[in-house]
Amino acid sequence: MAKPTASPLRTGLVHLALGAYTLIALFPVFLVVINSFKDRASIFRDPLAIPTPSTFSLIGYNTVLTQGDFVLYFQNSFIVTAVSIFFVLLFGAMAAFALSEYRFKGNTLMGLYLALGIMIPIRLGTVAILQGMVAAGLVNTLTALILVYTAQGLPLAVFILNEFMRTVSDDLKNAGRIDGLSEYSIFFRLVLPLVKPAMATVAVFTMIPIWNDLWFPLILAPSDATKTVTLGSQVFIGQFVTNWNAVLAALTLAIVPVLVLYLIFSRQLIRGITSGAVK
Amino acid sequence: MSTVEQAIVDRGADRRPRRWHILVFLAPAALVYTAIMILPLIETLRLSLFNVKDGQSVFVGLGNFNVLFGDPRWAASFWNALRNNFVFFLIHMIVQNPIGVALAALLSVPKLRFGAFYRTAMFLPTLLSFVIVGFIWKLILSPIWGVSPFLLDLVGLKSIFSPWLGKPGTALIAVSLISVWQYVGIPMMLIYAAMLNIPDEVLEAAECDGVTGWSQFWKIKLPLILPSIGIISILTFVGNFNAFDLVYTVQGALAGPDGSTDILGTLLYRTFFGFQLQIGDKSMGATIATVMFLIILTGVCLYLFAIQRRMRRYQF
Fold first, then answer.
1. By its UniProt entry, which InterPro entries does this protein fall under (chain B) (predicted)?
2. For residue B15, is pLDDT > 70?
3. Measured between CA atoms, how close is A239 to chain B, in angstroms?
4. Which one, of A197, A176, A228, lies nearest residue A70 by Cα?
5. Does B5 map to a domain?
6. In this structure, are residues B89 and B240 in contact, taking their beta carbons and an 8 Å threshold?
7. Among B233, B234, B221, which Cα is nearest to B194's?
8. Which of B36, B207, B282 sits opposite A129 (nearest CB)?
9. Cβ of A109 under 8 Å from any chain B Cβ?
10. Which residues contact B82 (CB under 8 A, 6 or more apart)?
11. How far apart are CA B125 and CA A23, in angstroms?
12. CA of B32 vs chain A CAs: smallest distance (Å)
């Protein structure tokens, strides 16, 4: 039988397998990015070649930036994502604090009620959500998206933050109470700073589905002024489907912000997942 | 009336002062969540029992469901979407999750070099939006571009290439595999975490007994990560029966060719919102949403009551 210590052959095979899958995961993205910098003829002649001075072309980016309103789409996505995360973190932390700190009637029930939304997707209520937004005059506003995403993000945020807040020492909070701090200052000045790492994890988990969502922008805010970058690129690519330069450039532009954020937060995100925050 | 008021005052006086701050802390989250999520969900369930007749909303009981399951205009597309959705889920279960477990097992090899790099790279597709993933694969699988035939030629398999996304027989499999490519990162990470949590003593004890390598994986690690596999299965189930974006991006709202990639999410979109000649139908939209809700609820309950309770035994 094999020895407990890994043999060089086995290590080699492990790296071969992992390397092969890494290639499968990265290659499609890589292919799109390199071809977005090439002229039309060389995209088709030699798709796998890296752009050289003779094949280099920015015509696709030119089309995207002059024909599409991508700056506006990015701005919309950014506003929606940032404001939703802010409210998810603030309201989520407040509710988690109430649930973890105080004993009151209906505490467990409230916790279960808020946790329902982790498993039941908000999308199933779309028919009535649209009806409500129409009644409130919020169709085609970013507010509608922010409201929906805040509601969507809250259950998981409360669940994760609740677990972390239980680990904040009671002595600290009681010391604050003896010093005459109100419950509000205990929450904002003592507890919140201590759960910052958990808040960062929640922020990353909340951000990804919001930034990438296509369903609600399509249904609640499809107007030109409120398109998010996900919907904007969907529509743009649909219109320019035969203009390969423009499609590849639009895809690359949509990948870049995700890539940058991922490279900044990947450690946080992976630690968040592997520490069991989502279980 | 005054005695009632008196009683309330008396009872209040016995108690501690009302702790208003609890209400202040809970109210914003509870209000937003109830107003935007729970009430619309209940309203959608209620709407599925009504239909419009002569411009008026009339209670029809389970009539909408009868139409959806039995009326020739609806039933064919509904059962088609439901069947496709199960195939979609099944492909995820038999492709995505085993690959995820295998990658996690490889990643958790002790003293692995570049482990962080592999993890980061393999998780990247999970973060991309469906729009990006859908179009990337549409381009790669497109016979016009010729990247796939070229790559298949490198391994001598050029003859198997065909425009998979455009053929009714293969389109659903192709779309499912694109989704698998995107989401394999999630089972990989969760299983990886579960494997890191296996105590060293257990593995050392196994090694002392001569259980190493493959048999160690099958006999020791796999039973211990079963709870995580359960979680992944239910996450996949909920995600798949709620899916929409990828099919919409790759195949459009009609989920072509010939409805072969139509799943419940795209059917809901077309029914509720209308598409091309079809006019949006709120009642039938709510009915389909209700069916999706019941399917997901059944899955979650099954998981919570049956599977998780059984798996608890394996946990520490």
1. ABC_transporter_permease (IPR051393), MetI-like (IPR000515), MetI-like_sf (IPR035906)
2. no
3. 13
4. A228
5. no
6. yes
7. B221
8. B36
9. no
10. B264
11. 12
12. 6
Domain that holds residue A122: 69-239
Q: Is residue A28 less than 8 Å (CB to CB) from chain B?
A: yes
**Matching residue, tokens 């990006």:** B132
Which range marks the domain in which residue B251 is found?
A: 71-280
Give the best residue of B31, B139, B145 to mutate against chain A (max A CB count within 10 A): B139
ipTM computed for the complex? 0.85
Tally of domains within chain A:
1
Contacts of A140 (CB under 8 A, 6+ apart): A220, A221, A222, A223, A225, A226
Query: Is residue A39 within 8 Å of residue A52, measured between CB atoms?
Result: no
Radius of gyration of chain B (CA): 26
Number of separate domains in chain B = 1
Query: How far B211 CA lies from chain A's nearest CA (Å)?
Result: 9
Q: Name the residue type at position B136.
A: I
Please judge whether A124 and B296 are an interchain contact, meaning their C-beta atoms are less than 8 angstroms apart: yes
- Is B61 within a domain? no
pTM, rounded to two decimals:
0.86
CATH number of residue A84's parent domain: 1.10.3720.10
Say yes or no for a CB contact (<8 Å) between B22 and A104: yes
Answer whether A14 touches B (CB < 8 Å).
yes
- Does residue B63 lie in a domain region? no
Tens digit of pLDDT per residue, chain A (279 long)?
444 455 788 888 999 999 999 999 999 999 888 888 988 888 888 888 888 888 888 888 888 888 878 889 989 999 999 999 999 999 999 999 999 999 888 899 999 999 888 888 999 999 999 999 999 999 999 999 999 999 999 999 999 899 888 888 889 999 999 999 999 999 999 999 988 888 888 888 888 889 889 999 999 999 989 999 889 888 888 888 778 888 888 888 888 887 888 888 777 777 777 665 444
Is residue B66 one of the residues assigned to a domain?
no
Residue A102 is nearest to which of B22, B147, B265, comparing CB atoms? B22
- Domain containing B88 — which CATH number? 1.10.3720.10
Q: Which residues of A touch B111 (CB under 8 A)?
A: 6
**B-contacting residues in A 254-273 (Cβ below 8 Å):** 254-255, 258-259, 262, 266, 269-270, 273
Contacts from A108-117 at CB under 8 Å and sequence distance 24+?
A: A110/B26, A110/B30, A111/A158, A111/A162, A114/A154, A114/A155, A114/A158, A114/A159, A114/B29, A114/B30, A114/B33, A115/A155, A115/A158, A115/A159, A116/A155, A116/B38, A117/A151, A117/A152, A117/A154, A117/A155, A117/A156, A117/B33, A117/B37, A117/B38
Distance (Å, rounded) from C-alpha B133 to C-alpha B181? 9
Structure tokens at A199: 């808040």
